[in-house]
Amino acid sequence: MTNKQSKKQTSNKKLNAETVLSVKDLQTHFYTKWGLVKAVDGVSFDLKKGETLAVVGESGSGKSVTSLSIMQLIPSPPGFIVGGEINLEGENLLDKSDREMQSVRGSRIAMVLQDPMTALNPVFKISDQVGETLSIHKKLKGSKLYNSIIDMLEKVNIPAAEERMKDYPHQLSGGMRQRVVGAIGVSCSPTVLIADEPTTSLDATIQAQYLRLLKDLQNEFGMAILFITHDFGIVAKMCDRVAVMYAGRIVELGDVREIFNNPKHPYTQGLIRSVPSMDEDIDRLYSIPGQPPALWDVPDGCRFSPRKETPCCDVCVNEKYEMVEIKPGHLVDGCKCCLGTCKSSKK
């Protein structure tokens, strides 16, 4: 069996796997002095067991707010989840109290943050921070807890784990700190792991090692990964499907190969075009013209219109629309001007 056939079979298995996380019409708004900021405005997606779903987009597109909403860690005020559902294995997390969510976070759904220096407490040893999750959710104590801490650090390839667990975060390198955060995240074998740009602070060599480690941990624990990033190179290596976010909404969702080979939304096309190619000799890298809109003043319809070479018509800008499925599993924002099917679009 060829490597390509093996990958296709693995992809089909994930496609038929059970859905462990289902987000439906999620809306998270912030009340600010500028007005109502719709940071997440009607986001919907499913995540299947053992699958890696990438969420990509520019800074301010709503990626991290989506992940914090799933974890129910939105600072309130000024932020509030005003609508939608977040179903984890059939249970709507928005119906749970703060106390009930404490038992969910870390055990059934966990998160790896992009900056390990802010994720780790500088005044506690590594053993205390890895051990906290194990003692709370698995009720481990004494020698069992001690051995489990060492075991988790060894799983994330930290050398001399028994010695390193006595260190403070500042005594470790950036790559080792990020591995410690990963150890905390997977220590209770969560169903879903949210990785919020975990490789941002790592150099290229350490980044590749960390991505390989995440894949190994996923295979060992069978968890689904929601991988938030702005790096299409990582998406190609790590992920099975990709959701492209812009101005608080998902504008395209589908299989990684399908999105790379056949992007339909002009924003997705612009992002892929922005990735440097080794085959082209160019003087200046491409960038999408303009800036993302202020989220306190966005239209109901197409939010990408001002950045297009040919702006959308008034109907597409002002009327709200649903995602459309152009192929099985490939969904695109329903703006007819962006899809090239609008009869009244400007020429």
Shape: globular
- Binned, the helix content reads 25-40%
Number of strands: 12
CATH topology of the largest domain: Rossmann fold
Strand order of the largest sheet: 6-7-8-3-9-10-12-11
- Proportion of strand residues: 15-25%
Unreliable parts:
none
> Biggest sheet, open or closed, and with what strands and sense?
8 strands, mixed
The chain-level mean pLDDT equals: 86
Radius of gyration: 21 Å
Number of structurally distinct domains = 2
Q: Number of DSSP helices?
A: 14
CATH class value of the largest domain: Alpha Beta
| CATH architecture grouping of the largest domain | 3-Layer(aba) Sandwich
Order of helices and strands: HEEEHEEHEHHHHHEHEHEEHHHEEH
**Structural class, please?**
alpha/beta
CATH homologous superfamily classification of the largest domain: P-loop containing nucleotide triphosphate hydrolases
Distance between the termini: 50 Å
Tell me what you see in this structure.
By secondary structure, this protein is of the alpha/beta class. The protein has 2 domains: 1-108 and 191-297 and 325-339, P-loop containing nucleotide triphosphate hydrolases (Rossmann fold), CATH 3.40.50; 119-189, no CATH class. 36% of the residues lie in helices and 23% in strands. It is built from 14 helices and 12 strands. The chain has helices at 3-15, 63-71, 98-104, 116-119, 126-137, 142-155, 161-164, 174-186, 204-221, 232-238, 256-261, 266-273, 314-318, 336-339; strands at residues 19-32, 35-48, 52-56, 79-88, 91-92, 109-112, 192-196, 224-229, 241-246, 249-255, 324-327, 330-332. The protein has an 8-stranded mixed β-sheet, sandwiched between helices. A 4-stranded antiparallel β-sheet has the order 2-1-4-5. Helix 5 (126-137) packs across helix 6. The longest helix is centred in the middle third of the chain and has 18 residues, at 204-221. The model has no long low-confidence stretch (mean pLDDT 86).
